[in-house]
Every structure is written in structure tokens, then in C-alpha cells.
Amino acid sequence: xxxxxxxxxxxxxxxxxxxxxxxxxxxxVNIYMMSWYRQAPGKQRELVARITSDDTTTYADSVKGRxxxxxxxxKDTVDLQMNALKSDDTAVYYCNAYHPRNPLLDFWGQGxxxxxxx
Length: 118
Known about the structure:
118 residues; seven-stranded mixed sheet
């Protein structure tokens, strides 16, 4: 079992930056693939960025060059730094932990709202 708590959301102006943090607690957190997803009103949840246990990263095309995902194994946190924010980035952002060898071990945080608006 992995428990995830997101923080860092809020209101930011277009062109601004935001850093989201996901605090993970549970067993063997470091072997999980950690991801950030987002869901905008009326849209499906989509992958924003992912980092594997060996620190391989993947980004959605819509955020490439503007987002950086990182993990701190000592603190069991996964951060998402987003720059040059656009109104299209407005969404609820969710942290996800996925066990690479057991698909039943798939955990989600409660989400944090990010609103990009002037």
C-alpha cells in the first residue's frame, strides 16, 4: 500500500511557474514508477510526466521543455516543476504510483488544483 499526498497547487498567471510535490508513504516506494497526471474539466485524465525507478523520464508533448519531474528517494517525494504556464495547463493534477511488476498496485493521490489565469 502506498499513500500519496499532493501539494503546491494554486493560482498562477500565464507565463508563471509552479512546483507540485507528491509525498509518498508506504512499503518500497522507491521501486514504484511515479507519474503526474492531470484532468481538466470535461476532459479525460492525461499523463503529464513519469519517472521510473531508474530515473528514466517521460513527458507529454504538451509540456516538453516546460516541465521537469524529479524524485527524492531520501524524502520519498516526487516533484513536478512547470514553467511558462498556459491556460491549457489548468487542471487538477494527480500523483500516481504504479508497481512495474504488479498492476494491482496502482495508487492515486487526492489531486491538487492548478489554475492558470490572469
